[in-house]
Specification:
By secondary structure, the protein is α+β, with helices and mostly antiparallel strands. It has eight helices and 18 strands. The protein has helices at 18-29, 59-62, 98-106, 129-134, 176-187, 212-218, 230-233, 243-250, and strands at residues 6-12, 34-36, 45-52, 67-75, 77-79, 88-91, 110-114, 123-124, 127-128, 144-157, 163-170, 191-201, 204-205, 210-211, 238-241, 269-274, 280-287, 290-296. Helix 8 (243-250) links the parallel strand 15 (238-241) and strand 16 (269-274). The two termini are 15 Å apart.
Length: 300
């Protein structure tokens, strides 16, 4: 069976881990070289971007895109995992005005400092934090700077424990669970993330994805479930190489590409494609008007 190379967009259901979905695609595609470019918690749903075959070499270049989410935050109840899967740690009546909510949301927009949940895969002392937490330890989580471009509440269901339906656009590495808990803190009450759905990763949207049931019925890399070409997944400047340049690039040699001599491009990473078929050749870095390949991935 020929190796399948490309990007597959999957609408992950609740209850499956991201690795569970990877295993499903490995079985359906008949190949081991399958990975993902950003995990979703088991209870979360939505867009999971998978890479197959040669595209696995591009994983690190596909993980940094902004992401969009929708979900529900429950106020008045806190959990140890900051989401609905955890154990309740605090409960209190929670009341706030629309103005107070709007002011609290504004404190969480822009570049902000987050402390990730201790129930996460981040390694502390060489071990995943969630394993330490489950063993009864209290791992000290390193804070990080993330960017929240927008954070809005689209509907608020009042009550002793209000529920806020929200939309957020944020940088890769942002923990929406932490956003939910921090919004509660800004309002002076406990809170946790009740549900989460990822709707966009970079240029990809969940509307263009396939459910696990569809994959099981229609297969992978078929007429009904086509893979996205590697070059289409990379959001960066593009250089179309001539036939002569293709051979140089595939052997790791630099080319003097027309149009890359501008000072503004110096130091820029670009994708190199074959002018003939548009297939991805690899990635290169512009240096003094030449393109030096550092990752060769011939897309066929």
């Amino acid at each position: 069976m020929a190796q399948k190379n490309g990007i597959l967009l999957v609408d992950k259901p609740a209850g499956l881990t991201s690795h569970d979905v990877v295993n499903v695609v490995r079985r359906l595609s008949g190949q081991r070289r399958v990975g993902h470019t950003g995990t979703l918690d088991p209870s979360a749903t939505g867009l999971l971007v998978l890479v197959l075959g040669k595209a696995t070499r591009l994983s690190s270049w596909l993980t940094g895109y902004d992401k969009n989410y929708t979900g529900v935050i429950r106020f008045g109840i806190a959990t140890d995992t900051l989401d609905a899967d955890g154990l309740e740690t605090e409960r209190a009546a929670c009341h706030f005005t629309a103005s107070e909510l709007e002011s609290a949301l504004k404190t969480l927009i822009g570049e902000i400092i987050q402390v990730p949940p201790k129930y996460s895969a981040i390694k502390v002392g060489g071990r995943p934090a969630y394993k330490l937490a489950r063993a009864g330890a209290d791992p000290k989580m390193p804070q990080r700077t993330v960017r929240v471009e927008s954070f809005t509440v689209t509907d608020l269901i009042a009550g002793e424990h209000p529920a806020a339906h929200f939309q957020v656009k944020c940088s890769s590495g942002t923990y929406v669970r932490t956003l939910a808990a921090d919004l509660g803190k800004a309002l002076g009450c406990p809170a946790h993330l009740e549900s989460l759905r990822r709707t966009r990763v970079g240029r990809f949207t969940v509307a263009d994805s396939f459910t696990v049931e569809e994959l099981q019925k229609k297969g992978v890399d078929t007429e009904e479930v086509p893979l996205t070409a590697m070059t289409d997944a990379l959001e960066m400047p593009e250089y179309a190489a001539s036939d002569d340049e293709v051979q140089l690039i595939l052997t790791g040699r630099a080319v003097s590409g027309a149009g890359v001599s501008e000072a503004s491009l110096d130091g820029t990473v670009i994708k190199m494609v074959a002018a003939g078929d548009g297939g991805l050749l690899g990635l290169g870095k512009v240096t003094a008007g030449t393109i030096k390949p550092f990752l060769v991935v011939r897309e066929v």
